[in-house]
# Entry
Amino acid sequence: MNEANDELAFEPHEEELLSRVAWHYYHDGLTQSEIGERLNLSRIKVSRMLDRGRKMGLIHVHINSSYGGCFALEARLQEIYGLDEARVIPAQETGNINDRLAEAASQYLMGRLKDQEMLAVGWGATVMGTLQRLARTLSYRDISLVSLTGGVSAYIEGVASGRSSQNVHLIPAPLVVSQENIAEAIRAERHVVEVMSMARTANYALVGIGAVADEATLIASGYASRSQFEIFRRQGAVGDIIGIFYDQNGEPLDLPFHKMLVGLDFGALSAIPQVIAAAGGPKKIDAIRAAARGGRIDVLITDEPTAQAIIEKDQA
Amino acid sequence: MNEANDELAFEPHEEELLSRVAWHYYHDGLTQSEIGERLNLSRIKVSRMLDRGRKMGLIHVHINSSYGGCFALEARLQEIYGLDEARVIPAQETGNINDRLAEAASQYLMGRLKDQEMLAVGWGATVMGTLQRLARTLSYRDISLVSLTGGVSAYIEGVASGRSSQNVHLIPAPLVVSQENIAEAIRAERHVVEVMSMARTANYALVGIGAVADEATLIASGYASRSQFEIFRRQGAVGDIIGIFYDQNGEPLDLPFHKMLVGLDFGALSAIPQVIAAAGGPKKIDAIRAAARGGRIDVLITDEPTAQAIIEKDQA
DNA sequence: GCGCATCGTGATCATATGATCGACGGAAAC
DNA sequence: GTTTCCGTCGATCATATGATCACGATGCGC
# Structure
């Protein structure tokens, strides 16, 4: 605060000197001592001038990369929603967005997973892609996999096939069944109970975020119908995580559909130390924003335009 | 110099990591050790990544121009010669002056070039250095490159190698040929005509300014002989731009040499909205001064002693 | 297969940098 | 005039940084 009103105006000569010092330092690669000798200044003074130059914004560092702009967004996301971490991948017209998110997510997890740890996985296209990319790492590095919901086995088997299958625990059931009492019965099965309680002990959860849109994977794979989605939307649903639909504040709705799910609920999900979500694309803006606002996730991996849109909505 | 053209291409993931490191270092003010911890890298590796980032031009330090530079001299140059802009870099005995000018020029252009724009480039050591520094920006930011003369391909290819080569248009010919009729024939070639007419549509032209001295790059690279230069000097030549020699008022001379050039003439050059020249050093004082007086250039990037000398000569 | 060169890595150490502290000097208050 | 406050300066020292070295992995040619 004290230096905030520190004279912003200084001698023109001072300005020139400062920029000269900055030039020598940053562009010519001279040391502060060398600059001092050359311009008859004490080394310490040169140091202070550079410091001042930086504080005043006279010296500006530009990161000349398509990633550059993303870091600012990451910082904002973390700040606004209290995320542990955010990853934003650069905008790019070409290429499937889910593939690129999966790539980023798998990279993130690779750097994060330690031996002996357990990763719980949800349901969705992005999650599947991530697991495919992770497959090799998982088998090399004694990492266990467990499913958060039913319906995962379909794609996870190919991924974790072979050697390390003893470390893979799946809920042997579909994601959604047709009747509430059937779901109850399945959830009571001993093996299902075991896997679900194991999932509660996972170190990380990897989930996708679904939009309430006709293109949703839930509809494409026959777990839900368009008319159901229309009803969900009327009730205020903006998105889903592991099959549970929530409103714009990230609060889970009370839907009959939820009673037919086989998998963990939001309470159990939140108990997992770190919930990592990978999702992006224009359709998912509201879904992601609500999840973040509601504290449903700890780590968000998304793309640049989506991040921008989310932040803008919470700006006002 | 030698390692300047070591592989400019690297893994996308590598680049992301590098950008992230740079961001933490320069924007968040973290130390290299802290970054290492955070990203699971050894401190030394972080240090090396930063080094590489700087060398590759991924990290750029910009010194705010409104304060930076050598104010008084810049203002005087603009005033006396009616330049759009002047950049003067501080004096320094050691270090290659061309490298420092190239640094300044690339910085200027980076701040100026917008997407979809086209930059036409001339011939010379400083231009080459500038392009090397710009390479990264150019490929990222949909900017087209076109040559103003022949003989450019030799050094531009390494620069624009790889991805964005569809945006690079070179005159496929040497700068100077041995006979007038050969030059005529080349200039009539369809492809050459095309590139030259494209060059006329460029938004900016980046050129060097050559002195009529034995050290000239034109002589060093075998395009002209000392005896030719001696003759040019007798005829009143004080400098050249894209191979065209002019007198002390910046008026092009009528030399046979010019008829053997493959490239644009002064009329076409002036038609480009902004002609940017980067040149400095004691040998080039008269050449630069004449170019400025004759209105051959719109933007001048030079060094302090040279600027001083030029102004002094026009003071009296 | 066996050197051989090359590269990337981390360890060690010299150097560069910036934080802290006391001293000096000028300006305002008394 | 003195005193006190404030800012600046340089000395000292802890830390951050980058240069050098040595090692192990990888790839190449013999």
Summary: Chain B has a mean pLDDT of 86.
